Amino acid sequence: MSSKDISPRLFLDDEFEETKIVPDKVVCLGMEFPSEDARREYFRAELRKKLPELKQIEGFPIGEDDDIINLSDPPYYTACPNPWLNDFIEEWEKEKVELEKEGKRKANFEVKTPYAADVSEGKNNPIYMAHAYHTKVPHPAIMRYILHYTQPGDIVFDGFCGTGMTGVAAQLCGSENDVKALLKKGEKAEIGVRHSICSDLSPIASLIAATYNLKFDPKAFERKALRILEQVEKELGWMYETEVDGKKAKINYTIWSDVFVCPSCGNEIVLWDEAVDLDKEIMKDSFPCPHCGNTCSKKNMEKAWETSFDSLLNKTVTLNKKVPVRVNYTLSGKRGEKNIDAKDKNLIENTNLYKLNLNLYTNKLPFGEKTKAIKSSNHIEYLHHFFHLRNFILNNRVSDLSGKDIYLQSWLTSIIQNSSSMYKFRLDRKGGILNGTFFIPSLNIEQNPIKLLKSKITDFNRCFYETRGNSAISVNSATSLYNLPNSSVDYIFIDPPFGANIMYSELNSIWEGWLKVTTNNKEEAIINKEQKKSLFDYQSLMYKSFKEFYRVLKPGKWITIEFSNTSASVWNSIQNALQSVGFVVVNVAAIDKKQGSFNAVTTTTAVKQDLVITCYKPSDAIIEKFEKSEDKAKTAMDFIEELLVHLPVHLSKGESTTAVIERSPKILFDRLISYYVQKGYAIPMDAQEFQKQLKERFIERDGMFFTASQAIEYEQKKEKCSGFVPMALFISSEAEGIEWLKRELQNSQTYSDLQPEWMKNMLPPKKGDVLPELMSILEENFIKDEEGNWRNPDPEKAADLEIIRNRRMMKEFNMYLEQAQKPKAKRMKDTRLEVLRYGFKECYKQKNYQAIVTVGDHILESLLQEDEVLLQYYDIASSRV
């Protein structure tokens, strides 16, 4: 086979041999090596020495030592916990000093407000073409955050890095063209590379991250890849040949069909033969059995099964029966199709015989929900059962020829899904994989891996960018970042697991099987029945992860969490875990993926869309002030002042100013209480006293509180807008009802005035919560004059009302407690959320943790899990009982 047959860009062997390439000397972590190969082998030997110690760390992957070392490119990338991260941090910190001397960094750099501008995702970037993965945050979107929160030389960390887009974004901040392409008119940014540490529990994720982030020589990669293709073409190309009019043609793909059994006569039916009409380009829902004429459909037929000896496993296996039915080929540069013929069937049989002379590798799939499903539906338990035989043979050969080269290994895994039986046939020939599951369609396509690999060379080469090589990659559990020192990173961006959305370790097994290094899923933060991981287990793992993130982030610095939320309980688990470790939640935004913009979330309940949570780690000054102060109540307003400084001052929606809900007294009080509870401090004041102090120390504008300088800035920016959009308030809970009435009663109104509007704004409460009647809320919280008009209470009377209301709520809470303590007590279906919140708070003050746990165990689980206040008190009480 000639070079022309493979690619017009092939570097001919004889031309290459004549070119004397003298490798450049390289310096790595202060040591000089004659070449990259010498550096790599030295650090691989060092890694081998460190493996016994590294194996004690949570999340160490499953695999033989040799396979882990062969998959690594140390010290930049290790397929296990990276022991050199601290060395990189020391080197990068020294670099910061030099950048400051050169005027490229500021010693007193500080970011006071979160990033709140619109973001365009830029999904059509060529970087996404190289390797598929379950989730991928577009790096241009991440770049905007990094440019806002960091300066050149800063260290960015991603503990759930997936394919390493955070690392790509950090490094492309040093590309003037890429940065300028992001900036809008009037925007400025400090151009300069940011260093990154990308860590993930998954070996395949870390390999892809290394592929995207480490130094990369496209010409050398292409040369090696084409040599491999030439070799496998010589050895195995015959497996992908067919005969058309007496001439040899190259197979592009083969269509395979499941075989079913007629429920009437018991004879076999090839689905393709009876259900597919190529002339009309339709798939029939029902059709007559070719043997008995009975009307059949895929739904009312059982699969046909066949038992055969599996030489790889040295035992018999029973799999659903499939037969090849049609071939798509290329002959003389033109594509065509034909039905399968006897010679094609003989070719497949010869492949079966050829297999007997090979030493092929396979492995068993991990146990879990998705693997259990494919075992049940298709009897698949091993890696090779996902592939038609010739594709499995060829992929094995490419794996052997790729050796220790991480780019070649990533090149192979990039085509694994599309070369498997999971690739679906469609009449329009636009097939694909069903994401997030193991699904083998009844009509599937066996693609030619040589063609797939050839096309991927271009995709990989398009991933080159000049600022590569400023990242370190590690396979780590986010729950144990032993290799990162305290307060060592400048910014964190993460896109964490989404509860039960994606079973990463299971789905990754189809890639990781080829690497021979697989995920240790003990610390995988997911909800999975088969792994016996519940919502509380997920929350515990996320808590441990966020605790580590809090530890490694420098004080006063920021963390951004993108979260694809699908349930209120998972959402609250994330928020609760964040606040429990000490982060202060500043802003929650929702991403509109169609428009690529971020819009402020105006409720504290979950929304079913992607969310971006912005938090900061309190500064050393405020932490020290809390630790030294004996009267924690006096430091409360200092905490609020630092929080206000970190909140957005002004947000606009169209031509109007929109309210910043995080500046409302309710949310500010929630943040204060969360921080005090997390630190184990006594709750310093009630809501009335808090609002009184807020008004004494800060300035109120449009129901929001500002520092003096912020109030001036807010007024100036508001003047430039034509309108004002207040905080949207709908009534689905008692607390929301009170806030709604406070706004409505800025001017006094009668009950009959309020009642119709109250009904219009009502939404169904959370399951298990009871919304009191309008009159009850009015009587407990507001003042009625002699004319029957209701109004907001003045501060003096508000305190008295609060005392009366609290007594009523505590009385009702004690009734809940009494009910929960009865023998064989069942869960209470109707409880008032505000009563539960108040009761939990009072029990916490009195250190009556058992009462919190008892009541918490007897209210609806959804109510407990979906309310962050209840959940926080319950978790702390559970740990102290």
Automatic annotation (TrEMBL):
The keyword Methyltransferase applies. PROSITE patterns: N6_MTASE. GO terms for biological process: methylation. Residues 119-174, 489-629 form the DNA methylase N-4/N-6 domain. GO terms for molecular function: DNA binding; N-methyltransferase activity. InterPro entries: DNA_methylase_N4/N6, DNA_methylase_N6_adenine_CS, SAM-dependent_MTases_sf. Keywords: Methyltransferase, Transferase. The keyword Methyltransferase applies. Pfam families: N6_N4_Mtase. Belongs to the N(4)/N(6)-methyltransferase family. This is Site-specific DNA-methyltransferase. It comes from Phocaeicola dorei.
